[in-house]
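To: structure desk
From: M.T.
Subject: fold request, one chain
Message: Could you run this one when you get a chance? Sequence is below, nothing fancy, just the single chain.
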Amino acid sequence: MRTTSGTRGEKVPTAPSANPAVDTEAVTALLERGRTMSTPVLRAAVDRLAPPMDTVAAYHFGWIDAHGRPADGDGGKAVRPALALLSAEAAGAAPEVGIPGAVAVELVHNFSLLHDDLMDGDEQRRHRDTVWKVHGPAQAILVGDALFALANEILLELGTVEAGRATRRLTTATRRLIDGQAQDISYEHRERVTVEECLEMEGNKTGALLACAVSIGAVLGGADDRTADTLEAYGHHLGLAFQAVDDLLGIWGDPEATGKQTWSDLRQRKKSLPVVAALAAGGSASQRLGELLAADAKSNDFDSFSEEEFAARAALIEEAGGRDWTSQEARRQHAVALEALDRVDMPEHVRAQLVALADFVVVRKR
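Reply: Done. Structure tokens follow.
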């Protein structure tokens, strides 16, 4: 891997210079297949919850509105279910074999969203008020815990050796996801975070569960550990690319597309990749940004900052090179993910679909 030097001796990876072309129609079909095949089982799992947790969860998934009326809300991109079904096919099994894994991973993912929204104070997700905003913090915590328990139930009910192996991978990924969230929160209170620390945090918070999604179906389909581990490597680097794009959208994303406030990550003082890379770059913009962020950490008026003040910080991040570096890092992680696929023997049409999903991750707008 080629590198360039940042400040204080840090090594900053370089990356390919162009985004891949995306077969939008093919990716849309893959995502829709994952959503269509997993949603009935997901709904059945949520129906097991005691009231009012069942309706709170249904609101979170977009199936009902805040008044309990049926709704057709945005249930998310469904990347993880799509990966779990493809994972089963990569092992030579039918996509249906991956459905319990797809549902389990989606339950864990949404457990983390419910808790993250509360911890981050996010009031909007997918263009709607978040669960804690509508139903209160206690319900957000309880329903999140319940979804995690359901995820393990769904797998263990299969009663097979493969289900036990899949559950171990899921619980390990969940523990890493929680590690990543703890790191993320702790970094908000530090003046400086290194690029390496940020990548480790994002590998835990996002990469771990995507890695699990793209191996869990294969495990349920009887794949050996070497195959599952290599698919996990693809998922891990895909997760890092995914999070790098999320970090860009968290500062410069269009609120109409992302469903979040303008400058969302800056409002939460997140040490995301663009911020960390800008601070590591050196130069006048980097120095000025560091001074502002240090002052922000001690400010009692941060919550009342104007749009112009957040825009000024975003402009300094961009001037220092944080935006460009993060774009390049997304593409570099994308390339490493695709290299991992070359080490797995699988049907060529499945490989092409995994490549298409990876391409989608680095060019998405929400």
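Reply (cont.): Residues 225-252 form the longest helix (28 residues). Let me know if you need anything else for the meeting.
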